[in-house]
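Section 5.1 Outputs to date
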Amino acid sequence: MKEVNYDWQVINKSKNISEILISATPKKIAESYSNAVEDSGFFPAVLEPEPLAISRALLPLGQKVKGTEVIIDIGTKYSNFIAYGSGSILFTSSIPTSGEQITKAVAEKLKISWEQAESAKIVCGLNQAQIKEIAEKELAQKIKRSFKYLSANYPEYSNIIKIHLCGGGAYIRGLAGVLSEKLGIPVERGNVFTNIELNRNKESRFFSKEFITSKKLTQDNKVTGNFSLIFATAIGLAIRGAHYEI
């Protein structure tokens, strides 16, 4: 306990049972972020784990949905599984499948540069066998393991009604459809503006990005679009900053 910073909050309380959300991080990590903020001339008001910020960005504030929603944040180094029910995070787990792992597999198999492979994930998506194999055999199977943990430890929340994807990996073409087929649950890209009013012109201006891959992979080798899901954590933190009571 001497090496950890932690905080907790009562979520639900009944006569016999209290449900408490606990968040913890090693002091070395917390202090490194705090020091960086202070050295930049700012005061660190709060340190918050990624899953809390991501949930605040993607899910409607103050709305309790009947059933459990899951967020899969597919990041560069790892993916996060976030189970959310009754207006609170139930638990989170780390999935070792990552965007970097997929890029490496594509680059090595097709003998193309890292940059072209990074774009190929978005432009070609699951048309590339390596990406489809990772999605079906790696990501889907590891998500199923988290489902089993959820059912075993939170049986009252085992009814999963939807999966939201975020992070850079959410833009892999065809990924949502394959995961939905393998898991038997609706899967869609999340919306980081669920709790923010933002017109389309500003979305295009601030969150537009272009991906270009090798023409030998596909004639239509360019994709331009809204890639705001990469900023889910930052947007969730900003919402907290605007609403201190949250």
